[in-house]
Amino acid sequence: MASDAREKERQALESSHRRRVWLGLRLPFLALLLLCGAYVAALLLMPSPLQVALLTDSALLLFVLLPLALCLLPIMLLCIALPLLMLRLGARSPLRRLEGWTAALQYNAEAWLGGIDSRVLEWAVWLAPLRRLLTFFDPPEDSAEEGEA
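-> structure tokens emitted (149 positions)
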């Protein structure tokens, strides 16, 4: 008697599982398959390219863009809500700290580059007399231009 009750319970669970699979997977798949078939039939029966373009645009909207928008909706809501949550949770002081660090880094980089610039100018002034020695054997530029004119 107990095994008979278990068998009925197992059969009830199996039929419930079959019904859920039918309603959750197979029925939507068949509906989508019928909708695709209806689209193909409508495309074959439509004489005007404008009608075909309208149908393909609606198919793109229905089969691609709508599911994409539904899948990306939670991500977009999170992207919108995250900065607001950061402000509410007190992220202002770390942002101020980061702002201070970047300002200090900019000041240090400008000071470092200014020191390099002054050193290069000092070396240029110091090496200016050697420039005349490096161009000693070069032909004069002014006489070549005057001869051509």
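The mean pLDDT is 84.
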